[in-house]
Every structure is written in structure tokens, then in C-alpha cells.
Records
---
Amino acid sequence: MDKNDTLDAKGLMCPMPIVKLAKKMKDMKVGEVLELIADDVGSKEDVPAWCKRTGNQLVGQKEEGAVFYFYIKKVQ
Amino acid sequence: MRAFPNEVIHMAETKKFAMVVSEGSFDKAMMAMMMANTAASMGIETHVFYTFFGLKLLKKGAKPKMPGMMRLFTGMMIKKMKGIGIDGYQEQMDMAKELGVKIYACNTSMSMMGIKQEDLIDGITVLGAAAFLDIGTDSDMQLFIG
């Protein structure tokens, strides 16, 4: 999946991936896609919830073993 | 790979979250800060009111300990949390400030415990219960940590 930047949050537990994601998205431009990599199982539910709440778009999601990849497009 | 190209995005309206912290132990302090920082990261307007024993968490250089006999294990808890990427208490407070979490101190508790505004960290608003309840009343979510 096309991406403009990557945020590696492996080794971080809830709520740090979300806090770091929020900070990172502030620096992105509208329309850009961020790849977030996390290994916290909670992020599977947390990241979609964050996207829904903030109005950003989760354009893709995959799992490779115990690692989760999220593709988030900045909407606003 | 799951892709959601046509997902309809609803612009989220700003929600408001009010939390009261009435205990000053390490676990309560951290729980409150992690919850507040997550809420603020989700774009939720977050207000935290520290009262009774919670108030000492707002003193300059506060180093909260686990409650009772567990206080001996505070260092171990801090180390364990660091190991999974969770910052210490002071770092959490700094993060809250950076994220725009609004923090309030209860004026009655301040008099009760002989704590003055200059004993508190910067950026704290001193309020009474009525003023905080006014904020809480038009919040979408209220939590009590005690």
C-alpha cells in the first residue's frame, strides 16, 4: 500500500501507540498516508477507534504474525 | 491486507471528558494521566480535577508511590512500565500539558492540606466544586478515579 511515512510503535503498549500516532499525524499533510506498525494487541481495536473519533481514514490494515500494520490517511 | 477504500468518513464532533482524581497513589496517578493523554490524543477535550489526596499529585516534583505496603514495589512498577514504553509520572504530566489537557486543583483541598498555588506545578487552574461540576455537567463522559 502507498504510504508517505512510517511510524514504528513496536514494543510500545497502550496508550503510547495512540499518543505517538496523534502527534505524528499533526505533522502530516491532508491526503498523505501514514503506515503505523505496532505489536500491542490492543492497537487492533484502538487504532480504528482513534480514526473514527478523529475523522481520519483507515485505508488498510494487515497482520504479519504478531505485528500489525495500519494505513491511515489524513483527512483533516 | 484488508483495504477500506470506500469507507464513509463522518467528521467527528468534539467531545468533552471530565475526570476527578481523589487519590494520590502511583497507580491512580498513572491511570488518570494515561486515560487523559489518550483522550486528548483522540481529539477529546479533556478536563481533570484533582481533589482530596489526589491534590498532592499536582505539587512540584511529586513522586507518587504505590499504596500501603505496596509502596516498596513502586520502583519495580516504574521499571516494568518503562520496559513496555510507558513514561514515568512527570513525563506523563508534561505530555498532558503538551496535549492541552486542562488540569484543575480543588481550592478546599488546598486549604485543608495547607498547599499554596506556588507549591503546584505551572499551568494549573484553581477551582471550586461548583465550577468543576459545571464543566462535568456538559461533558459527554465523566469518570471518578478514587
---
Amino acid sequence: MKKILLVDDEDGIHLLYREEFEEEGYEVVSAYNGDQAIEKFQEEKPDLVILDINMPGMNGIEVLRRLKEISPELPVILSSAYTEYKQDFGSWASEEYIVKSSDLTELKNAVKKYLQ
Amino acid sequence: MPELRKDPILGRWIIIATERGKRPTDFIIEETKTTGGFCPLCPGNEKTTPPEVMVYGRVPGMPPNSSSWLVRVVPNKYPALVIEGELDKQGEGLYDKMNGIGAHEVIIETPNHNERFSDLEPEQMTLVFTAYRDRIIDLSKDSRFSYVMVFKNYGRAAGASLEHSHSQLVALPILPRMVVSELAGSLSYYRYKDRCIFCDIIRQEIQQNVRLVCENDEFITVAPFAPRTPFEMWILPRKHASSYSEIDQQGLERLAAIFKESLGRLDACIPNVPYNFVLHTQPLRSEPLEHFHWHFEIVPKLTSIAGFEWGSGFYINPMPPEDTCRYLQEAGEKK
């Protein structure tokens, strides 16, 4: 079973995404901030990371650059409610930048694309 | 007594708050926080960028997007404007709108992650200026575009999001307001005096030598009469030319030389100051213009824009350009 690490500081996102992605047949592990994300990444060895950007402490782009330094081939999907982080060229290290929406089709398709 | 000064091209007023008597050391530059980690612009990570549209210094025989290069130009991975589609200009009542068509590209100025633009070797900097020229020429073939804006943000306070040295260009389907104002202001002067205002500025600044930072055989750097910020500098070709894309190889080399000299002096006065520079050139597909003169404007990020500036369009500058020029001249003498 492919494993997704979900990094977001909002409980609601974890509840929703966990339900949706488990239904799609993935295992979902959770982290609520950047430090926890790096820790969980090393423990759990996920196949893909869904990463929020606007989080307390280390932001998602800093986490992304740290994760990619450890594992350049790891697919990371940035998932943010904001588009302005697209201006940060650090975001280029991600495979996709998806703006959060109640419709998860785009996110699910991106996950499928990288976990096939 | 503070002084109001008028920019002769734009008619923009600024306030020189002379009584504050600032020195370069009075400016506190926040140390740039570098996050480190994986860099999408570094050699070896080419697949994290879109495929390059231009490259310089690739070892012959090496494939496109491989890791041997000196300067690389790539489209923005997450662009604000998109290259595909038609403009589809529309009116909505009295308002105008069109599709967000444009080209947004990133010029990766060096393969070395920690090398600053001002520290590039002259040959490397020449390649960067060559890339600007070649991209403008290439994008001018696209009839949807009216203008190519080339700019650099250095330092997080000036808008740079990644420490790996890069600049950007945006090809636009409309002329930016600033360009329209500059063209109109310089045309108005030309109609009145039958001379290019920039050529007149060059002549006067050389003659007066109070705002002349440095010069070489093809270019001069001046602290403009009405600068928006302390240590603002303009780099102008001595010989009249309205289009940057006409610059030849020797011009590119001399431009790199004066840029390096000017930024080196700025760095000596205020180490590691964040700045923006912007190329001002004529619109695409325009005939050569007698009244307009291409140039670069370097604007250090030393002041903030607040309510008064937004409301009035005035800038408040705590240092007269004659003072900053003196510091910049002295910095050159010490080198």
C-alpha cells in the first residue's frame, strides 16, 4: 500500500484528506508542523508528501527544501489556500502546486499521477 | 530645510529630508535569512525547472537541460501569466480586461549557488546581459507582446525568494504605466527642446560631476537628481540608443564592467544591501526613438513605502544624491 505523508496545521484538513485518501486505497500518516514532517518522513518513509505552506514555525517551502535535500526523488505536492507562494522560487522544488479546494479532484489526480 | 525635487522625465516629486544627515552606516540591513536546502536552480536539479528556452556555456555534445551551463533561461514553473492563448480583449461596461497572456522567464545567472550577481566575473555577467538581449529579441517575434520587462530582485527585502542568483523577465501584452509615463515625459521634452532628455542628463552630469558615480568609454552611472531612495543609481549608455536589443558584444562587455563597478561601490558603502534593478527600454516593434534612451535603474531597498507615499506618489528620501554620490565615489577610490 502506498503511503502519503500529510503535513498541515489544520485538524479539519487531516480529517477530510485522511478519509478521502484512505478510501482511494492509500495509507495516510500525519504531521502538524515542519519539524514533525521531517521526523515523520524519516520514520515512515512515505511515497509522497502533501504539504501545506502557511504553517507556524518552518513554512512549507522550507520543509520542502529540507525534504528534497534528503530525498530529491520524493514527489511533493504543495497544497495551499494561497496562490502568492507561487512567487517563491523555492516552490519549484515541488512536483505540483495545488490551491486548496473543497473539490479534491485535482489533488487526487496529482497523487495518482505520482504514485502509479 | 527639506527640499522638494522633481524628476525631469516623469514629473514625479520627491522629498529630500536633508536635515536628517544620514550616513551609509546609519542604514541597518537585516541579515538575509537563508533557508538552505535543496535549490531548484542549481546544476544537477535541471528537471525541477521547466525545459530551458536558452542556455549559454553548455559543453558541446551535452544534451539540453543537462548540468553543464553558465547561464540558463527557463520559463517560470508557476507563472502569473500564461503563454498559451489569445488575448481576447473585452469591455465590461467602462472597464477593460483581457486574458492573462504573457511570458514569465527566469534567468539563472550562475551555476554557483552562493555567488552574488555583483561578484560574478565580468565574462559571466556579460553572458547575463547577453541573455537579456537575446530573450527580448526572441520574444519580440510574438505579436501578442508589447513590452519585455527585465528586472532583478536581490535580497529577501527586495523580493528575492531564493538566494541562488537570478533575474526575471516578463513579456506583457500591454505597455506598463511606468513605461508610458517615461515615453510621454521624454517625448514632451524632445518636442520642446529637440533633444533627448537622457542625453542632456548625461552631458550635464559629466559637466557638473556632483552626481556622477563612475564612467567608462561607453556608459556612465549617475545618482539621479530626484532619487526615490538613497543610493539609487542609473546606468546609461553614452551614445543615444532607445532599444537595448541593439547592444553589440563590446557594449555588453562594457555594460558588465560598469555594472560590476557600480554594484561594487554600493556594496562597499552598504554591504549586502537588498536592491532591485530594472531595464528601461523601448516598446517592442517600435521604430528607433529619438526622444528615449534605454538605461538601467538600480534602486536599493533602504526605505519603506507607507501611506504618504501611496497617497501622494512622493517618495521621502533621507539622503541627497550628491551625498550618496560622494560616498560612492570615495568607495571607488578606496578600492
